[in-house]
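Hey, quick one: can you model this chain's 3D structure?
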Amino acid sequence: MKNFVITIARGFGSGGRQIAAMLADELHIHSYNNRILTLASQYSGYPEHYFKEADETLHGSLIAKQLLELPKMFHTKGHLSRFVSDDQLFEAQKTIIRKLADTESCVIVGKCADYILKDYDNVVSVYVEAPRAYCLQRVMDRMGDITLEEADELITHTDKYRADYYKYYTGGNYWTNPVNYDITLNNARLGDEKCVQMILQCMRIKFGDAWYKEYMDSIRKDA
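Sure thing. Here's the predicted structure for all 223 residues.
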């Protein structure tokens, strides 16, 4: 196996993005989140701010406002216009994700990467979630000047948008369905560091002991 990819989908506030960063550090590879938007912009020729406006983490009235600011060529009619306007942008993003999976070992956060790469045998797909109370506390700790009510609304809106985004671009699949992933983790029970270790063990099981030992030995040798 020339290279590998770990995709991480995550509930807002679950710590999935931090786990992705820690995992990438452990494996000495890149973690791609918003950097996918930059690469997709370079590939497609569209200005990067279009991708940021259409990013899955935006939600509620903000997404509607920003889509209205896109050039008319991106607008469509009908009840699906919320997402159809961004189909060309998503296609560019999908191309970048596949190119990464073909050429580079990396971690990819969100962006329907688990679905886009579902037929790749060099991919481990992960879903990270946690109970609401844990996510609320984590969001408030991270953002600082935010109330419990504001954190609750932010989680609700962001997770709803991610679910809708995933359902639309995967043709009706449910974002939280465990059959979409190789492993699902409850970060409130494990914590960031143990989640990283669980993902590493999943890689070892899926790719084999010999591959895992060879790769980890190569990291230590290069350190």
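One thing worth noting: The chain has twelve helices and five strands.
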